[in-house]
């Protein structure tokens, strides 16, 4: 068991040097065409270790100053596994904006790696994940333009949860924007969330951008986003992340079943007639005292 930061450093270095990372893939589903359009690559550390969960893994890397090295390792593991699986759809690859600016990343290392695997940039969507405040938007915009010129598409992750999501969206004009799961869970029960998601959908439509609703776990969540005409969705309702993901989605999941509300009980079950009171109506010509 890891008992101090020296042990944690040792464990993380073993993970990186021995390539002990595992990649799992979660489908991204088209609600209009009822099929899979891509997979998001998600990283896990060694099973049954303190670094198995991604949050623990990345927090340790940040503390030890190894975030960039970890992200590069995650990228290579994801691309290697995706190429082996020969999946026909797009790969959504998480990248921090700061890593996007790294010389090794910017100088085409990812592109060269893709070519060695027999893949092209048109198969990859760079999904920007904002964990820290962005200080130089102009630099990020230049980097995004550079990657687009190579053939990559851009997605903005967790809209509504980051530091500057709306500004990033307006300045980068990504092909995809992902609504954070906070706003999609229980959407059908919360008018504020509903109005937020509807506004995002309206803006995306005007910007020729596709919305991906994350965190869809219940049929009611699916019904709500489907009613808003959102293009794509992702979540446990459709499939869990797996090392070998499913190739097709169960068609029955797209059946839009509307649950009828149950009649109210107790004092709220009385009729309008039982609480109404008769009133005397007066003719409009009736005189009143001065």
Based on the model shown, name its key terms.
290 residues, alpha/beta, 12 helices
Structural class: alpha/beta
One letter per element, helices H and strands E, the order comes to HEEHHEHHHEHEHEHHEHEH
Total strands: 8
Percent helix range: 25-40%
Given the structure, what is the number of helices? 12
β-sheet strand percentage? 15-25%
Give Rg in angstroms. Answer: 25 Å
Low-confidence stretches: 259-270
Strand order of the main beta sheet, please? 1-2-3-4-5-6-7-8
Outline, from the CA principal axes? Answer: globular
State mean pLDDT (0 to 100 scale).
85
What is the rounded distance between the termini? Answer: 92 Å
- Biggest pleated sheet: 8 strands, mixed, barrel
3D architecture notes:
- With 290 residues, this protein is of the alpha/beta class.
- The protein is 39% helix and 16% strand.
- It has an 8-stranded mixed barrel, surrounded by 4 helices.
- β4 (124-128), α7 and β5 form a beta-alpha-beta unit.
- α2 (54-63) runs antiparallel to α3.
């Amino acid at each position: 068991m890891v008992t101090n930061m020296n042990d944690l450093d040792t464990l993380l270095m073993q993970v990186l040097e021995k390539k002990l990372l595992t990649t799992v893939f979660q489908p991204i589903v088209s609600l209009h065409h009822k099929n899979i359009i891509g997979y998001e690559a998600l990283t896990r550390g060694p099973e049954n270790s303190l670094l198995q969960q991604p949050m623990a893994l990345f927090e340790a890397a940040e503390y030890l100053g190894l975030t960039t090295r970890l992200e590069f390792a995650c990228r290579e593991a994801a691309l290697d596994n995706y190429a082996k699986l020969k999946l026909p759809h797009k790969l959504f690859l998480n990248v921090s904006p700061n890593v996007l600016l790294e010389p090794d990343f910017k100088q085409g290392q990812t592109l060269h790696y893709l070519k060695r695997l027999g893949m092209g940039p048109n198969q990859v969507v760079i999904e920007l994940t904002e964990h820290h405040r962005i200080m130089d938007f102009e630099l990020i915009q230049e980097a995004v333009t550079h990657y687009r010129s190579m053939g990559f598409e851009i997605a903005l992750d967790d809209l509504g949860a980051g530091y500057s999501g709306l500004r990033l969206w307006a300045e980068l004009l990504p092909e995809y924007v992902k609504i954070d799961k906070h706003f999609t869970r229980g959407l059908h029960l919360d008018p504020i969330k509903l109005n937020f998601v509807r506004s995002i959908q309206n803006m995306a439509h005007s910007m020729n951008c596709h919305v991906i609703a994350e965190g869809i776990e219940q049929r009611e969540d699916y019904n709500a986003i489907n009613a808003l005409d959102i293009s794509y969705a992702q979540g446990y309702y459709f499939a869990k992340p797996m090392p070998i993901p499913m190739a097709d989605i169960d068609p029955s999941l797209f059946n839009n079943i509307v649950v009828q509300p149950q009649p109210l009980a107790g004092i709220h079950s009385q009729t309008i007639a039982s609480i109404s009171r008769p009133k005397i109506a007066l003719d409009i010509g009736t005189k009143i005292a001065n």
